[in-house]
Amino acid sequence: MSVAVLAVLLQFSDSPFSASWAFPVFVTATAAGGAAGLTLKNLNLNRAESRRSLNLMFDEQLRTGAQLLGGGSESEVIAGAQALGLLLRESPRHAQVCADLLCARLRKPHSSDVDPADSDDEKAQDRASFAEANRIRNSLSDAIARAIRSEGAPEHLKSIAWRFEAARFGDRTRFEACTFGRESYFRRSTFGGDVSLAWSSFESDAQFSFVTAPRGLFLRGIQAGAQVVLQNVTLRNTAGESAWGVYLEGSNTAGIAIERCAIDGAIHLDASHVVGDVRVVDSESTSFSLIDGRCDRWLDLNRLHTSRYICVRNTEARKGVIVHGCSAGDEIEVSNVHTLGKVIVTESVAPSISS
After folding, report:
1. What gap in Å lies between CA 293 and CA 309, rounded to an integer?
2. pTM of the predicted model, to two decimals?
3. Where would you tag: which of 15, 241, 249, 292 has the fewest CB atoms within 10 A of its CB?
4. Residue 132's Cα: distance from chain center in Å?
């Protein structure tokens, strides 16, 4: 670098070359170049040391959070969940481990998993134990929701797989406006009350299989890189209260598949945009509606049974509409459908059928 500096000085100098001034310049440039090299080396060393210190701090945070999460008291579990939730967002290297630990804690059974209100034993101790287990599970889901909130989310959240296998949630689960990475799913999971994943995004399938949720699934505005899949889902409202059913209004997905589901409440797909097929097969619900929506391939309703109505109206289904072997307590309506194919209603039963 020093030689290059000297050459430049000589090139633009109006004075004839003289060693009297060139040599000091050469020495100065050489010293400056060496100092710059040392500064850069020191900077790189400092950065490496900072990374090591940060990783050690994150390692310790992981150990502490995991230990607290496995603790026996409510306060320990909540503190552990918060620590792991913060670490998950801050450190890509630890993120998947944190997610796995939080999912594992949601699988842990409690001795009070049977609600004392549903049994003959009304002892105050049982009720308190059930309430504590419910609070812990609500706190776990709250910590997860804060960690994967889409607003200001770091890029590595899209690579975290949330494997909610046999998870037991509390009476309030709100994963709203969250980011779920590839291979995330809810399988054989049980929800104790309200469930909302509104405005959340899934990098691949949004998969719910063998899930029990008495108040239904509120999935408004959900976005999925692949399909929204509900298989063998039971949304039975044993409490006799109103339920959402499956609420997918305004969703944007590559496909919707609802198979072998028993739903108290509506299957509500209004204003949804589905790039692939919409398939509802061997399922029952209070009603089904797809109004002002768009399906870029087939709308296939096969052996769907509703206690009220099936309504497809003001909707685009490019390949066509098939309603086969369905039944409705009031009406089956397929009207004002824009398609390049056919609208076929066969072997279906209802007091009123219009297509």
Report:
1. 17
2. 0.81
3. 15
4. 26
